[in-house]
Specification:
By secondary structure, this protein is an alpha+beta fold. It has one domain: Alpha-Beta Complex (Sufe protein. Chain: A), CATH 3.90.1010.10. Helix content is 54%, strand content 16%. The protein has a three-stranded antiparallel β-sheet.
Length: 160
């Protein structure tokens, strides 16, 4: 299994590792395919993600995914990240990771969606705390839809 240079770089030197004290958003995922665990912490001010950090116990692609994702979402407006249809939102979030890491082996395509799922859980919790129940409900609806992205690796391996 060949990993891209970017994946190896982010695995060996992950960015934004750690916790944020009293974060506005926290999401945890145990990947249903492999059991890797990632916790994502976010500092959010006026709808903008000011800081993002993660802790992960997982493989190189899981760690690289969280590293890239936390870099990409900093200083982003949540409303921009979540604009569009459900499919567009999930696709955009997953591609934030995959466009940076390059080609990911089919056996590891389940890793980037886990980071996205942790992000969605964190954002749903944030909106719930802020009393934004409609936004929180929409994001909670997105979470199970991410599961389709976990299956891409299985489909790619079956086709090979």
């Amino acid at each position: 299994m060949e990993l891209s240079a970017k994946t190896i770089e982010h695995f060996r030197n992950p960015q934004n590792v750690g916790e944020i004290e009293n974060p506005e958003g926290t999401g945890t995922i145990v990947n249903p395919i492999c059991g890797d665990k990632t916790v994502l912490y976010m500092r959010i001010k006026e709808g903008v993600i000011k800081d993002a950090k993660f802790l992960s116990f997982g493989c190189a692609v899981t760690i690289a995914s969280a590293s890239v994702f936390t870099q990409k979402i900093k200083e982003q407006e949540i409303s921009q990240l979540l604009s569009g249809s459900d499919d567009e939102v999930i696709s955009r979030l997953v591609s934030l990771i995959e466009s940076e890491l390059g080609e990911i082996p089919p056996a590891k395509l389940h890793c980037p969606p886990a980071t996205v799922q942790a992000f969605l859980e964190a954002i749903a919790g944030y909106f719930e705390k802020e009393g934004e129940t409609q936004l929180s409900s929409r994001i909670k609806r997105l979470i199970p839809q991410v599961s389709d992205y976990y299956k891409r690796g299985e489909k790619a391996e079956e086709a090979a």
